[in-house]
Amino acid sequence: MQIRHSTHPAQLPGFDTDGLRQHYLVDDLFVPGEIRTVYTHEDRIVIGGATPAPGHPLKLESAPPLRSAHFCERRELAVLAIRGSGTVTVDGTEHELGTRDCLYIGQGAVDVEFSASDEDTRFYLFSTPSHASFPTEVARFDEVDVLKLGDQSTANVREIRKFVHADGIRSSQLVLGVTSLAPGSVWNTMPPHTHDRRTECYLYFDLPEDHRVIHLCGEPQNTRNIVVRNEEAVISPSWSVHSGAGTHSYTFVWAMGGENQAYDDMDPVAVTELR
């Protein structure tokens, strides 16, 4: 488990390209045969990737930074199959996940194991501290409500699906969903916003290997950018915008943890205010 420490907005102007990437980009989550995790002190979120091979399941263990007997002792966890399909076994109960299906695992689960149905299977993990236990539950990509937004004239036609949220799968504080951009659309979360009560992380996927997303971060009047490849994640502190444009359409997981679960608790930033 890698550790990332919190940063102050005044530090951002001092980061060069390597500094930005070291603090905010997570670029090595999906390694065949491994579970990789990153613990950020921004709201004590853990993001991770599980990449099991068929016939060789991977068990999610605790790690020294958590100071716990098992991973979910004081945490809740969401799992999204970003590629392929497989099974997540929670305390002996198997949960089949197809591509883009989501599983929520409540605080107190002891044994969590990932199994792959094919060589391509990859599970994205997102975890927050939890102070209440909610039932483990599956949300199917094709069954959750779809919010359609954007316009082709601004290159941001997209579909938003919320999986774990106040009106969906119940959780203590974790919120997670998926946004899919239509062919020909490239902008996400523009106009941008911040939300001072939550940290948000983006995982970009379904992006061709020879394309990139230019992810915007920083305070609205002092922005920077990070070039992101397929299946890389960006940690966005509460004071930072989180927006971007790709050289191709893509999909991303947005997930948050913090003070509340109100989807619309955000501070909008007009495009004309950006610098």
TrEMBL record:
One of its GO terms (molecular function) is zinc ion binding. Belongs to the KduI family. Keywords: Isomerase, Metal-binding, Zinc. Pfam families: KduI (PF04962). Its cofactor is Zn(2+). The gene is kduI. The lineage of its organism: Bacteria, Bacillati, Actinomycetota, Actinomycetes, Pseudonocardiales. GO terms for biological process: D-galacturonate catabolic process; D-glucuronate catabolic process; pectin catabolic process. This is 4-deoxy-L-threo-5-hexosulose-uronate ketol-isomerase.
